[in-house]
Specification:
Layout (H helix, E strand, L loop, with lengths): L2 H13 L7 E6 L10 H9 L7 E6 L6 H9 L1 H9 L4 E3 L9 H16 L8
């Protein structure tokens, strides 16, 4: 993680005082390349292991993959490693479907579940 990104993240955390309830780690299906697959180590190194308890992996561009391709993607070792650190909290959204917004409602429900699971606590960084 470069210093500029780390600085921006720390500023965001400061602005969320006393601390965020949930982190959304956004992954674009089209750009989930090898360098981005090392995100687990980068997050752990910069924020500690505790942050994963408050993290939901949000996958965008779901519409770009067939069901079979999606199943292969979520079976990928690096993706499984990432979501397992986050208690298997992940959600995919279709970035193009403006008519059917149920994936947004489902995302908000998953965020609520993470907050409930953490007993309404926020992450202190």
């Amino acid at each position: 993680m470069d210093e500029e990104m780390k600085s921006e993240m720390m500023k965001s955390l400061y602005l969320s005082h006393p601390g965020p309830h949930v982190f959304l780690l956004v992954i674009n299906l089209e750009t989930f390349k090898e360098e981005q697959r090392n995100i687990v180590e980068q997050i752990h190194e910069n924020f500690g292991a505790q942050v994963f308890k408050f993290t939901l992996v949000l996958v965008t561009r779901r519409e770009k993959m067939s069901r079979k391709e999606w199943m292969l993607f979520i079976s990928d070792t690096k993706f499984r490693e990432l979501v397992s650190h986050c208690r298997d909290n992940y959600h995919a959204i279709n970035s193009k479907n403006e008519i059917n917004r149920t994936h947004i409602t489902e995302l908000l429900e998953k965020i609520d579940e993470i907050i409930k699971h953490n007993n309404q606590h926020y992450e202190k960084i």
